[in-house]
Input
Amino acid sequence: MPGWQERLKQAQQVAREGARQAAVTAEEVRKRAEPALRDAVEKAKPAVESGARRGRRAVDATLEERRAQHEARANWYLLEDGPVHTAGFPDDESMRQGIQAAAEHGWRVESTATVPGPPRIPGGIAAMVAKQAAERMLKPDKFMVTFRKGPGPGAAPPRSQPPAPPAEPS
Output
């Protein structure tokens, strides 16, 4: 009866032989499969490229649509037909620039409002108060400005032209 050392040596020998056979088999499979894989890739390439082009066109169309929407939001004072418009601003500087640009196109500020962010309740009242206070200090509220088309409230009414002198009879 062989000892454990002999059995270990036999098992190692069998494992080495099995590894050699597996390597030979894997190499044969690779050699047979490689041309078929290349053909499959070459056949699939046009379809993949076409799908990529379609996907890129869809992404470009979405980006163009979003750009147009942003442009319309940013330049609302050029496109707005009604007498009143309400616009939102994320910070003081953008609000100032928006008011200035709108004023240059005949819009005046009718009212402004601060819009606080949504309340969040993380666990307890004390934690909620502390968190909201920290958020307000770190992130300012958004601003809503209502504009009205036309002259401001202290502007003089339009003057009427004096009547033309009557024509002298000849």
Q: What stands out?
A: The two ends are 150 Å apart (CA to CA). Confidence is low (pLDDT under 50) at residues 154-159.
